[in-house]
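Protocol step 4 of 5: obtain the predicted structure for the target chain.
Materials: sequence only (see below). No template structures provided, no constraints applied. The aim of this step is simply to have a reference model before the mutagenesis design in step 5. Sequence pasted as it appears in the construct record:
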Amino acid sequence: MKALTAAEMREVDRLTIERHGISGLKLMENAGGHVANRIKTFFAHWPVELPRRVVILCGKGNNGGDGFVVARSVAKDVHNIEVRVFLFGKLNELRGDALKNAQRWKKSGGSLSAISSKNDWDKARPQVAVADVVVDALFGTGLRGPATMVFPVVADTGQGNSAWRPEFAAAFQGTPRKVCSM
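Step 4 output (structure tokens):
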């Protein structure tokens, strides 16, 4: 398998949409669906009476859109589950397919909490700390422009993906059993 740069991955997406007629929404459904299936498999052997807690950290771009797909799919198909979605930004900052998937998530009965300050994050952190699964749907193939969010524990690795570094995990003051990065 070949590892692609952020620019190469964006080009693959563009060509898939252009040459094969697969919509951006369908690409998000596929990406989010694959992650959701991994989470469903993870929970498949849990005793039914045990609660399942999933937290999805969504950015404002297409990777965040993938995260909303994960949320919708897992909430629909997994018994005794609590799905919490945190949007690092505001709903009115979403565009295109990411906005459509956020709206689909909300229409399905899901809620989302906007994280637009360190104070918001401090309030959300205890919910993240008790999650069984945390999904990183923040940056995807990279940032466009500077990271303006007041969120000191999420770092850009320079490769375009958020870094699940020890200090990021320690910021939760808990131990998710599984971390998925999209």
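Step 4 remarks: The first strand starts at residue 52 and ends at 58. The chain is about 45% helix and 15% strand.
Proceed to step 5.
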